[in-house]
Design a protein that fits this description.
The chain is of the alpha+beta class. The protein has 2 domains: 145 residues, no CATH class; 119 residues, no CATH class. 27% of the residues lie in helices and 24% in strands. It is built from 7 helices and 17 strands. It has a 5-stranded antiparallel β-sheet with strand order 10-11-17-13-14, with no helix packed on it. Strands 1-4-6-5 form a 4-stranded mixed β-sheet, covered by helices on one side. A hairpin with a 2-residue loop joins β13 and β14. α4 packs parallel to α6. It is flat and about 70 Å long.
Length: 327
């Protein structure tokens, strides 16, 4: 009741001085709608890092402008929206989001640290290999591509489309290269002359999954279901066998089955996951089952049962004095 009274008091007394602005300024930016043409592709905003915008970055615009009619913190809020600081609200895919080091601290912190140190050409290789099709960049960094549209409040940056030249989110790759450590895999994403469509980096070489069947040539893969905690894929693999490569975050908490039988996913290309498959057509199912959630739920249940038992014991003792121990 007290919390309710406090909230009502704030609303009533501060209604006429609330500095709220028109919500249109923090709506989904118009440029982001263009990325819907390929919902499986990622986007990149040059100059955005660790929750701020860095004008000195090689990929950044040299200046940011106030939104029309806004200034100060209101203009900054509108700029944050244009920079898509919270892309999950609009169900879009970003690789260099500063939220990712919170979710997967080691992998994405390593990746962001490396990205900040790299040159323009190395960054381009990295973005190509990680499926970043849409990029917000100044004209000098666009490689002569035609801009789709300007970005509001970014003085010289535009949205560009790299098309199908980037690695797709889902593919079947025939060759594999064992690179055992996470850091080495991430480092390799920036350099070297390897083609992610032909070779996948893996931490170890697992046994192929799925019963061998009639080869499918060329190899194919398509999404059957694509949700936040479950991804189902139908893959057709040619006679060489291969790896189903999914450019989604790797975690030990993803469980994998192939044709209904438990299998193994391995870390691939530093940040992602892959499953080795025999020739033929297979259904691969990824299900997110975090161990911490299961352990926490079990401990909570034990604690609840203990609390109930103690409460009932205390009540029984209070109701029946003869149950109390003699002094």
């Amino acid at each position: 009741m007290l919390y309710g009274l406090i909230a009502c008091d704030l609303v009533v007394r501060a209604w006429d001085i609330c500095p709220a602005m028109d919500p249109v300024h923090v709506a989904e930016p118009s440029w982001l709608s263009h990325t819907r043409a390929d919902p499986n592709a990622r986007f990149y905003v040059g100059g955005k890092s660790d929750g701020t915008l860095i004008t000195m970055d090689v990929d950044a615009t040299r200046a940011y402008e106030n939104a029309p009619g806004l200034k100060g913190s209101a203009s900054r809020a509108a700029l944050n929206a244009q920079a898509a600081f919270y892309p999950s609200a609009w169900r879009t895919r970003e690789l260099l989001s500063y939220d990712l080091p919170v979710l997967w601290p080691r992998s994405y912190t390593l990746m962001l640290d490396e990205f900040g140190k790299r040159t323009g050409a190395e960054r381009e290789r990295f973005l190509d290999r990680t499926g970043v099709r849409y990029r917000v960049l100044p004209t000098r960094r666009a490689g002569g591509r035609r801009a789709i549209m300007p970005i509001p409040q970014f003085s010289e940056s535009f949205l560009y489309d790299w098309g199908n030249t980037v690695t797709p989110r889902l593919s079947v790759v025939a060759g594999a290269l064992v690179v055992p450590t996470e850091g080495e895999q991430i480092d390799a994403l920036f350099g070297g002359d390897w083609d992610t469509r032909a070779t996948v980096m893996i931490e170890r070489e697992p046994a192929p999954a799925g019963a061998p069947g009639a080869a499918v040539s060329p190899s194919t893969a398509r999404f059957v279901a694509d949700r936040s905690n479950r991804v189902t894929v139908e893959a057709g693999v040619d006679a060489r066998g291969g790896y189903l490569l999914l450019l989604d975050s790797y975690s030990n908490d993803w469980r994998v089955t192939v044709d209904g039988r438990e299998s193994a996913a391995v870390r691939a290309n530093g940040l992602f996951r892959a499953v080795r498959l025999n020739p033929g057509t297979h259904v691969v199912d990824f299900v997110y089952r975090p161990r911490a959630l299961v352990a926490g739920a079990a401990l909570s249940l034990v604690a609840l049962l203990a609390a109930l038992w103690l409460g009932l014991s205390a009540r029984a003792t209070a109701s029946h004095p003869w149950l109390r121990p003699h002094q």
